[in-house]
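User: Hey, quick favor. My workstation is busy. Could you predict this chain's structure for me?
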Amino acid sequence: MNSYYGQILYSGAPELILAIAALFILTFDLTAMKETPRIYRTGIAAGFATLACLAATGWMFTYPDQLSISGGMLVLNPVNELVKKVILLLVVATGLLATEVRFTRHVGEYYALLLLAAVGMLLLVSTENLLMIFISLELTSLCLYVLTAFNEKDRTSAEAGLKYFLFGGMSAAFLLFGLSYLYGLTGEITLSGLAIALQASGGDPLLNVGLAMILIGFGFKLAIVPFHFWAPDVYQGAPVPSAVLIASASKVAGIYVFSKVLFIGFAGWEWGRGAEASMIGWVPMVAFLAVFSMIFGNFAALRQTSVRRLLAYSAIAHSGYLLVGLLIPREQALAPLLFYVITYAVTTVGAFGVVAAVQGKGRDIALTDLAGLSRRAPLLSVCLMIFILSLAGIPPLTGFVAKIYLFAEALKPDPENMRMLWVIIIGIVMSAVSLYYYLQILKQVFVAKPTGPILKVKVGFLGHSIIGLLAILVVVLGVAPEMLLNHLVSAVTELVW
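Assistant: No problem, here it is.
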């Protein structure tokens, strides 16, 4: 008994560290720091949150290569730990960028929710249990709903939070119904057990309903068309640090757990089982969702005048590109999929960091507000150019390498892959379309002249440092992608499914 509970405590130590830090920050801010100026409270809270994330990251280096507790309730393996470390680093970047925005008086509550959201994401990545997946996803989502509506002085923040909550609640209902169908039909609650039960049963028509509901549930969480309705308003109305967390860390966790559900839980049902199969394969469904997301996201972004709404529709399109990674056979899929989502998340954090610097405490910025930014803030302008060109997939930046790697793996000479050739062609064409609206941003920054009031750009040393480091990372991972790819390939090679 002691050994079993000791294993649980040891495996869940990073999440426990973050939970304790969240309670400490909340208590400390509401007691000892209550009368302290907000700028110092924010800095201290961000410092404690950063130390907690670094401590949790350090603890993971003591983990064994493979360990499963309670039949998949908590699973330790190299890929899970790598993804969790990336999420923690993204949370650190989010927390530090929040010190530059200073949009709320409730500092302790904000950083406590930030760490609790991180706890949910870490648990989500670590588990292969259907019930634990749902609980972790909802813990993360509940924190994100509140973080979205956290700016009490901004009506659009409250509206975005309410819309996110309503759509998120609807998606949770679909996901729960889908998971319930799977459990009711198979009697299994683990992903590996689900796969075995499906193989033994030969499929059941009702499983199509469960699969469809799971796709709908995750589709809402990942802003996949046609389940994307909340994303533009949330990206535009949420405080910038909250939007950063939704666009980066939560997307990394979401696409990874979605891939595990499909690759492990529905292994062997990618294409059904011939004409007599009673259960439809999930690959065609994902392929159509990918195509719809790429087309709609890119064409909708062409019409946007708000920078943050443009980035939201861009994120929808990138969700479509990520779904392409799920069309690759699972033995080759994880490395390109994770490389894409990690590099995308890093780039997005940097782009939103520049938006936060330009926006300051004011309203959401339009494209025209970026006019002449290169003369007002040359360093930020260069960094923004790097982020935008990476999102567009321009060499030699990491966005180009990630997209080429993903498409190349999907186009390998394999009969199953070639059935998805049309999806790759559409993805390449839509990448060309995206270049137009990305260049519109750079045109405003480097070519256009201001026509209205000029927004002052005020960002401290810490903000400049984070944005600059992210820009350097984007360039380095484009020139030397093996720095990350080698770790991903090594981790995936050691993975036991």
